[in-house]
Write a structure and sequence with these properties.
The structure holds 2 protein chains of 2 kinds. Chain A is mainly α. Chain A is built from 7 helices and no strands. Chain A is rod-shaped. The model of chain A has no long low-confidence stretch (mean pLDDT 79). Chain B is mainly alpha-helical. Chain B has 2 domains: 100 residues, Rna Polymerase Sigma Factor, Chain: A (Orthogonal Bundle); 95 residues, Winged helix-like DNA-binding domain superfamily/Winged helix DNA-binding domain (Arc Repressor Mutant, subunit A). In chain B, 79% of the residues lie in helices and 0% in strands. Chain B contains 10 helices and no strands. In chain B, helix 2 packs parallel to helix 4, helix 3 crosses helix 4 and helix 4 crosses helix 8. Chain B is globular, with a radius of gyration of 18 Å. Chain B starts with a helix and ends with a helix. About 4% of the residues of chain B have low confidence. Classes of the chains: A mainly alpha, B mainly alpha. At the A-B interface, helix 1, helix 3 and helix 4 of A face helix 2, helix 3, helix 5, helix 6 and helix 9 of B.
Chain lengths: 171, 199
């Protein structure tokens, strides 16, 4: 880029070069070329001067101090998210479905999968499942056996001859 | 060379955060807390909201740690999140903002800044008046132009990085900046630096 043949940034639609020059963002070589151009181009000189004043005014706009509890609040929020993250992970698809982000297709697929699983289990074990617990079953059997034993003993007692009958027999 | 080292360092820290090292997140927070909050302060012109949005920026960074890939410069990614949140906030609050008076906004935080700067009442008043002018000039810029100027002026970001942060082309950024500075020159070129004005 020869300064003698360098086209005016404003005329050639490269105003960004002039802005970068004012912001001191050009390298040394390009800065020098711009300085040479600005020295001979009244339009660029005027714009550069105005831009430097704007830049200087913006320099004086000091930011406000940051709240002391900023970090503590942030880390507390992160900790809260971490605690809730496991539950969130499980509930996220449901929440997305409820909010309308997910359509009915995945829900239908899940329903069909569950139905298939239930049918598969049923076909593998046809008939009514025995839902009674083994201990309950055993206890019921024991009671039945005890009842029978009592009945048998009662019957034997009835069949057993009375004391008088025994005496008669002896005589 | 220095910039490259910084990129690598930030990306390295973020990769450590991805591995579960919260200390590295604290280092990144310490480094970028100020710049991000100040960027948002100047974007939103409201200290409390700016800090709230900055919290959200860092929360999003933390939440995204598992998917982080150092494909772009860390700061570009960070300002992309920050500018996205700021632009959304401005868009959502536009109708309310129109009803607020600039004087009310200025009175929120200027007292502290001015009081610490000027020793005399006259100097204080001059400074206050200049700050109001600067804030008003910035506030009058369209939100995207404002974001571009703040990233260019205060964060010294390159056009390509501003373009990535604002999700537009580099030529669009150049155009945004040219129009923004044109507006600022019309309003602020008469003032120059505050020290100069006071003298």
């Amino acid at each position: 880029m020869n300064p003698k043949t360098m086209s005016c940034p404003l005329q050639s639609g490269n105003a960004d070069v002039l802005l970068s020059y004012c912001a001191h963002m050009l390298d040394a070589e390009r800065t020098e070329l711009m300085e040479q151009h600005v020295a001979v181009c009244a339009e660029c000189f005027a714009l550069a001067e105005q831009q430097k004043r704007v830049w200087s005014a913006l320099d004086d706009w000091a930011p406000e101090p940051i709240s002391e509890g900023f970090d503590a609040t942030l880390f507390a929020r992160i900790a809260a998210e971490e605690r809730g993250s496991a539950w969130e992970r499980w509930m996220a698809p449901v929440r997305r479905w409820l909010s309308g982000d997910i359509g009915w297709e995945p829900v239908l697929s899940m329903g069909v999968a569950c139905f298939t699983l239930v049918v598969g289990i049923y076909l593998q074990n046809p008939g009514r499942p025995d839902l009674t617990l083994p201990t309950v079953k055993i206890e019921a059997q024991e009671l039945e056996q005890a009842d029978r034993a009592l009945e048998d003993m009662e019957m034997l007692r009835q069949l057993e001859p009375t004391a008088e009958a025994k005496e008669d027999n002896r005589l | 060379m220095m910039a490259v080292a910084t990129i690598e360092r930030d990306a390295e820290l973020m990769l450590r955060v991805r591995e579960g090292d919260t200390q590295s997140f604290a280092v990144l927070l310490e480094k970028y807390r100020g710049p991000v909050i100040h960027f948002l302060q100047r974007m939103i012109l409201n200290q409390a909201v700016a800090e709230e949005l900055a919290q959200e920026v860092f929360l999003r960074v933390y939440r995204s740690r598992a998917n982080y890939e150092p494909t772009a410069k860390f700061t570009t990614w960070l300002y992309r999140i920050a500018s996205h949140l700021a632009l959304n906030h401005i868009r959502d609050r536009r109708h309310e903002r129109n009803q607020e008076s600039l004087d009310e906004e200025v009175s929120e935080g200027m007292g502290r800044q001015v009081a610490s700067l000027g020793p005399t009442i006259e100097q204080t008043l001059v400074r206050e008046s200049k700050f109001v002018e600067i804030r008003q000039a910035i506030q009058n810029l369209p939100a995207k132009q404002r974001a571009a100027v703040l990233m260019h002026k205060y964060e010294e970001m390159e056009y390509s990085h501003i373009a990535t942060a604002l999700e537009c082309s580099e030529s669009a950024v150049k155009s945004l900046l040219f129009r923004a500075y044109e507006g600022l020159r019309a309003k602020l070129a008469h003032m120059g630096g505050l020290e100069e004005e006071i003298r």
